[in-house]
Description:
This protein is an alpha+beta fold. The chain has helices at 11-21, 97-105, 119-131, 156-163, 171-200, 217-233, 266-277, 302-311, 317-329, 349-356, 363-372, 402-418, 495-505, 513-522, 538-550, 558-571, 577-597, 599-609, 657-662; strands at residues 2-8, 27-30, 37-45, 48-56, 62-66, 86-90, 110-114, 146-148, 238-247, 253-258, 281-294, 423-434, 437-448, 474-486, 526-528, 534-536, 618-622, 629-633, 639-642, 647-650. A six-stranded mixed β-sheet has the order 2-3-4-1-7-8. Strand 9 and strand 10 (253-258) form a beta hairpin.
Amino acid sequence: MKSVFMVAEKPSLASSLASILSNGKNSSRRGFNGSCTIHEWRGTFKNEQAQFKMTSVCGHVMSLDFLGKYNNWDRVDPIELFTCPTEKKEATPKLRMPQFLSQESKGCDYVVLWLDCDKEGENICFEVMNAISRSINGNVYSNTVTYRAKFSAITEKDIKHAFNNLVHPNENEARSVDARQELDLRIGCAFTRFQTKFFQGKYGDLDASLISYGPCQTPTLGFCVQRHDSIQTFKSEPYWVVQVTVKNKDGIDAVLDWERVRCFDKEIANLFLQRVKECSQAKVVNITNKEKYKGRPLPLNTVELMRVASSGLGMGPQHAMQIAEKLYTQGYISYPRTETTKYPENFDILGVLKEQQNNPDWGKDAADVLSQGVNIPKGGRDVGDHPPITPMKPANRNELDGDAWRLYDYITRHFIGTVSRDCKYLSTTTTFIINQENFSIVGKTLIDPGYTTVMPWQAFGKNEIIPGFVQNDFVPIADAKLGEYQTNPPDYLTESELITLMEKHGIGTDASIPVHINNICQRNYVTVGGGRKLIPTTLGIVLVHGYQKIDQELVLPTMRSALEEQLNLIALGKANFNAVLQHTVEIFRLKFQYFVKNIDAMDQLFEASFSPLSASGKAFSRCGKCRRYMKHIMAKPARLHCSQCDETLNLPQNGNIKLFKELKCPLDDFELLCWC
Length: 676
């Protein structure tokens, strides 16, 4: 009997897949690494009886790193990181994942890989294949031995369809991830090490344990600082508006909108006001009624889900995606990482709606669509990855709690909204003339709420009904005055707006965008304010301004978006892996050399914004060299600094005195006085 070894990306997913493929008839045992479970059953593979074994990894099996000696910050010049050798290391050594996979796959005849269906998933496929290459029967890289399952939802229908339509791993997509990992490692580590050592050795109140640079992270920060700069340089200007109120025949007031909108010269604005005040009546010159539509939303993709989670649900994008991943592995929603906004022709819209029609919250809306007919969404884009994000099985408030329920609620309502009717309303525009000055008023009357019944946050607040007027009538002017206002600066970027900018400029992928935003928060480059606005810190502002002084391309999105295009060409098999890698590494190596040479330009900004080490902290202990008191600097990281010797010692983050004593201290025979 042949044996088939199957691997999923997470233990919970392996359990769900095994249950579906075995029709609930599988045995389970814990793997020796304590984190992965092995599920076994008998079935049919390639028209013959087979023994199946399903297990999982826990994300990436391997990670890229420099050879050991190059991880010493003190002994390695960061410029060497652009050319030094790298190696693949176990991503999580305590899991002993390569050994686990090799042991469990021993003697198997076929391999079926159930990793997530994106480029990262393809990369993990080849990590698994490499780990088991010596343990299975046959060549693991052969298309007759190793297969790939493509699926977008954890439902019986999708999983069994994938099992019956197996394909093969895509090496080009896997190589594009290898290229991204190596470039980010070399570029990020070189700049980060240099910056961190240079500035932490000079300033005591940076409040950051790592001053990092990232080819995606830094342009992401750049967007936030660019908006901050626009706010700081904004000069408010006064402007004036002619405000007119008229009465209809029933004595109801109506405030009109001035056709000129506003005027920045008060004297000229007063001339217009005087012209209006010369008349006691306004003439109704035109009344138009027009049916208008507020279009239903496009099917949901990852970027839109992150935008809505931040702006509407108050969830950070990384938190939202973690919840979406969990909902997916539990079978509640389809795969949450997709760029597609168009339902495939074979998508079972009616089936999904029928599953939702008994829900107490939106069941009536689903039933209405079923009875009145589905409206296939217009437009949208199919990029060939995964279908849009949709609910895959019904849920209620008792099954899901907190943010998980709120996200599922939104995804389901959005799906029903995409196949509902458009919102229809009547727009009435009444135009007036007063001594050659034109004014108007617009009213809206709801005709059919359409999709807004299931997505009430997009509904009209109330009908904006205007008082009745008759064309060519003259109506009395109740009031005419000049209103004075000020132009306002733009607000800080919200997470939602930042996600839009990142997508527009090709910074990151739908999977990595939330990671980059989370990184600039964790690095203390921005703080998240009310309304999830991203407010740059002094450190974030100084860094971006410093890059702009030395080399603007280090912070602009153009270089990264151009690189993403090259990585996509690798994934499509249209660009050479080594050529892209060598060319890009050389560009950034030259930029790094120029950056180091001109670091004083950035240092001038740091000097103006932060305190030198000698002026920070308080007396703590004596230096073993000069016997003067060293300063204890309570920032990140905590440090001891001797201004006389100009030497610094980082303290253990947990404040353990024993660990502190065991450190190799450059300040020989220091005397510990206190720990406060």
